[in-house]
Amino acid sequence: QSRRAENLYQTFFQAPAASASGAELETIQKRLRAVYAANQAIASERSLEKVFDNIMSQVFSLVKAHNGLIMLKQAGSEELEVEYVRSTESGSQINVSSTIIKRVYEEGEAIITSNAADDSRFDGGMSIITANITSAMCVPLTHQDEKLGVIYVDTRGTANAFTESDLEM
């Protein structure tokens, strides 16, 4: 699925349905705590490395990702550079989907895919096949209308690892 990032922001903060179960309300509360903790880190921390670490810690506490990274646009260009990496697979080279990252950055779309190799939006991109990426999520980082970069997470061998509410978070 692809959604404009600003639409995700609007739906994330909607009140839960009156019929929401206790488990759903607990999940919503956990997500709001994570967003609050990440916001506190952004507002109070001076080290970008620590901000990125805190943000990715919150993401990994809520979703079953194997790999995650933050990429930022470099000054004076549209090139993205990896600024932060986290992986549950110690010591291994992290290969990510350049196809997904490029689309998210250029189009300003938030993307979730549950079976990346078979997803027609990516036409069997080599990075998806080579890295054995099954599920992936990527969201643009923006400030006002300026593109700053992307946050990307993926899984290897786990289909349907992420949900729409994970993407919203």
Description:
It is globular, with a radius of gyration of 16 Å. By secondary structure, the chain is of the alpha+beta class. Strand 5 and strand 6 form a beta hairpin. It has a 6-stranded antiparallel sheet with strand order 1-4-5-6-2-3.
Helix/strand order, N-terminal first: EHHHEEHEHEEH
First-last Cα distance: 15 Å
Number of E-state strands: 6
Q: Note the beta-strand portion.
A: 25-35%
Enumerate how many helices there are, as a single number: 6
Task: Please summarize the sheet with the most strands.
Answer: 6 strands, antiparallel
Assembly state:
single chain
What is the gist of this entry?
The protein has 169 residues and is of the alpha+beta class. Helices cover 39% and strands 27% of the residues.
Write the layout of secondary structure elements.
Layout lengths: L1 E3 H8 L9 H23 L3 H15 L4 E7 L6 E8 L10 H10 L1 E5 L12 H5 L2 E11 L2 E11 L7 H5 L1
Antiparallel strand pairs: 1-4, 2-3, 2-6, 4-5, 5-6
Summarize this structure as a short list of keywords or feature phrases.
169 residues, 6 helices, six-stranded antiparallel beta sheet, alpha+beta
